[in-house]
Amino acid sequence: MTDPVSDFLTRLRNASKAGKDECVSPHSTLKESLAAILKTEGFVRDFANRTDERGHKTLVVKMKYADTTPVITGIKRASTPGRRLYTGYAEIPRVLNGLGIAIISTSKGLMKDQDARRNKLGGELVCTVW
After folding, report:
1. Which domain does 84 fall in, by range?
2. What is the pLDDT of residues 28-86, one digit of tens each?
3. 33-to-8, 11, 99, 109 alpha-carbon distances in Å
């Protein structure tokens, strides 16, 4: 797999469109940080780490729905392994005029666009969620 973050975002997108209760993905600390941001922003209900019988860690994300409509209406990978997108704090894009969030990988870790602007930190634009 060349881009595990893109795979994780695709799994989330597919699970929300299919109406699944949870999404299972291989674990990494970056994916766990992404899930934590999505939880604090109210896009997913919860997430947990599990270890299967062979010792492989997985990340289980519980999806969130408003009635039967998924809360995640769109999720898009911005920076890819073949085309890295870096942005200064003043140029961080606003997603749907503030209705969505952009997730930035900064020197202080992953953070949403508002926190990066507030702390005057730029970095790699990982994805946008709305």
Report:
1. 75-129
2. 999 999 999 999 999 999 999 999 889 999 999 999 999 999 999 999 999 999 999 99
3. 12, 16, 21, 9
**According to DSSP H, which parts of the chain are helical?**
4-18, 29-40, 113-118
Q: Which residues are within 8 A (CB) of 53 and not within 5 positions of it... i.e. 6 or more apart?
A: none
Same domain, 47 and 9: yes
- Same domain membership, residue 59 and residue 33: yes
Tell me the whole-structure pTM to 2 decimals: 0.94
Digit-coded pLDDT (tens) for 6-17:
999 999 999 999
Same domain, 80 and 53: no
Same domain, 10 and 43: yes
Give the closest residue to 30 by CA, choosing from 6, 11, 52: 6
